[in-house]
């Protein structure tokens, strides 16, 4: 049996490097192709046991991305790329337009499974009601995020809206993982997931563990949920989200 083959967009990123370690330590290790934009990024990823491919998100068409997916016989896509804030035009080009081309590419190549790393509070703040579980702290955090990194939040919203709202034409098996602020601290293996308060940060290593858990749990297909640092083991936290269908994006885009 050939191993699951996973392409990671944003493959040289900090979350991606944890993803590579997690996916390689599974009982059935994945073959991993981190997609990067510079050849200088490949030796470090190869040293981790991955098979990096150089293909810039900004300059690649959906067809070119699909060709890579076909050539590698990809079985799953993880989107963990981002322009890192800053320039709004580049943010839109990577976090929105690049992500949408990647979704289109997956549909063209017939790769069904697509896990998106998004962020808490990505939602239509103007048109939709505030999440009913938000408290004063969440409201402050939301205002802070949209005030400081509005173009990033808009780009993520547009990408996630396309992933969910336009899936009729793509037919992807998507999951959206929406982490709180990311930290470089060591992972604890414990999180709080679903309809949670959004102030707590989460180590990148734990975000990677949640994404990997989603890949192994088909119940997460068609779900978008928040995840922050917490006290529940990753497997159990994801299981509870699935059981309660705790979607934090539905009706908010
Ligand atoms: N920071 C937070 O607190 C936060 C919170 C919630 C969610 N997120 C999301 O979590 C995800 C992972 O975060 P992270 O900390 O791992 O980010 P990161 O370390 O900045 O990784 C993002 C990756 O995207 C790559 N990228 C950017 N433009 C590209 C292009 N044109 N072609 C190919 N690759 C390109 C970057 O490559 P280069 O190194 O070449 O630029 C980088 O490796 C992102 O989607 C981010 O939006 C972040």
TrEMBL record:
Family the UniProt entry places it in: Belongs to the avfA family.
Q: Which organism is it from?
A: Cladosporium halotolerans
Q: Which InterPro entries match?
A: NAD(P)-bd_dom (IPR016040), NAD(P)-bd_dom_sf (IPR036291)
Note the PANTHER family from the entry: FLAVIN REDUCTASE-RELATED, UPF0659 PROTEIN YMR090W
Q: Name one Pfam family in it.
A: NAD_binding_10
Q: What is this protein called?
A: NAD(P)-binding domain-containing protein
NAD(P)-binding domain location:
10-217
């Amino acid at each position: 049996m050939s191993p699951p083959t996973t392409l990671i967009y944003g493959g040289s990123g900090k979350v991606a490097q944890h993803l590579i370690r997690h996916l390689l330590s599974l009982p059935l290790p994945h073959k991993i192709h981190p997609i990067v934009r510079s050849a200088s990024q490949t030796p470090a990823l190869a040293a981790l046991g991955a098979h990096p491919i150089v293909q810039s998100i900004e300059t690649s068409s959906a067809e070119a991305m699909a060709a890579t997916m076909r050539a590698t016989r990809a079985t799953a896509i993880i989107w963990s790329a981002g322009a890192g804030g800053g320039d709004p035009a580049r943010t839109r080009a990577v976090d929105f337009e690049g992500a949408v081309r990647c979704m289109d590419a997956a549909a063209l190549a017939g790769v069904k499974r697509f896990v998106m790393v998004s962020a808490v509070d990505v939602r239509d703040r103007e048109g939709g009601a505030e999440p009913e579980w938000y408290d004063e702290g969440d409201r402050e955090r939301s205002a802070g995020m949209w005030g400081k990194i509005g173009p990033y939040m808009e780009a993520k919203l547009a990408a996630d809206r396309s992933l969910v709202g336009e899936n009729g034409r793509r037919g992807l098996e998507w999951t959206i993982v929406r982490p709180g602020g990311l930290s470089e601290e060591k992972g604890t293996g414990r999180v709080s997931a679903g309809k949670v308060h959004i102030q707590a940060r989460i180590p990148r290593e734990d975000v990677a563990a949640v994404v990997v858990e989603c890949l192994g749990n088909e119940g997460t297909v068609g779900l978008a949920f928040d995840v922050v640092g917490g006290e529940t083991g990753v497997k159990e936290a994801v299981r509870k989200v699935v059981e309660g269908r705790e979607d934090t994006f539905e009706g908010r885009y």
